[in-house]
Amino acid sequence: MTHDDGALFDLPDTPPASSTTKARGARKGAGTTAPSPNASAFPFAAPADVGDLLPADWAEALKPVEPVLHQLAESLGSDLDKGRQVLPEAHHILRAFTTPLARVRVVIVGQDPYPTAGHAVGLSFAVDPATRPIPRSLVNIYRELASDTGSAPPATGDLSGWAEQGVLLLNRVLTVRAGETASHRGIGWELVTDAAIGALVARGGPLVAILWGKDALRLKPLLGATPTVESVHPSPLSASRGFFGSRPFTRANELLAQQGADPIDWSHTAADTSGA
């Protein structure tokens, strides 16, 4: 079965083990496991300092989970040791955090990266501008964008224009094995993304969370009083059950306006190449 941003369906409600349990277990056993020779392929491998990898505010927010990032590099390196391909490319894994925390106004939570080589680019739901065909979940997002805002569907799957405006495109899990949906669920990424969401909530508004599907909705308890826009996942198997017609883009802008913030220009999906 093909895959669209984590799945063409909502992943099961109960994973085999909680992310916290697995991650703690991985760290506990790290002392008795030989280091992976390929861990260094990932920029967050020990002894990397998150301050050298991320904007200062994200680095401060994610400093408490720096040991988790180090262990994740070991886990991903172990996959490489076994001949497995890890997606996205290493330099894209933390890409969502290139937009400074202080500038984030909207967070859109995905599940995990596309497992097709060349598709995942580190921003939830987005693909490289050259990727064809555009993944079906993103096609459905564009269909709803056109219906909601009246803008023409974008020509490519590039969403970096949203990121430039302060939209955090955050997958719940930031890596995946090629061809294996949800293969890195529960290895520790949820601790990192929980910390990121917690930092946004602690910072305060203006902030709106767009939650599509069960995986995203599991974050709601962490969001406190943050306004949310919720629906089923935009995958082809669920979009007709409440995603289409949900108006997430205009609703998010209405919630931003209520907080005194400027709206997102949702029609501006691609990167700004004007140089301005």
Please explain how this structure is put together.
This protein has 276 residues and is α/β, with parallel strands linked by helices. The protein is globular, with a radius of gyration of 18 Å. The model is unreliable at 6-32 (pLDDT under 50). The protein is built from nine helices and six strands. The strands form two sheets. The protein has a four-stranded parallel sheet with strand order 3-2-5-6. It has helices at 19-29, 56-62, 66-81, 136-149, 160-164, 189-203, 214-217, 220-223, 248-258, and strands spanning 86-87, 106-110, 167-171, 176-177, 208-212, 228-231. The chain has one domain: Uracil-DNA Glycosylase, subunit E. It starts with 18 loop residues before the first helix and ends in an 18-residue tail after the last helix. Helices cover 32% and strands 8% of the residues.
Show the helix and strand layout:
Elements: H1 19-29, H2 56-62, H3 66-81, E1 86-87, E2 106-110, H4 136-149, H5 160-164, E3 167-171, E4 176-177, H6 189-203, E5 208-212, H7 214-217, H8 220-223, E6 228-231, H9 248-258
Parallel strand pairs: 2-3, 2-5, 5-6
Antiparallel strand pairs: 1-4
Question: TL;DR of this structure?
Answer:
The chain has 276 residues and is an alpha/beta fold.
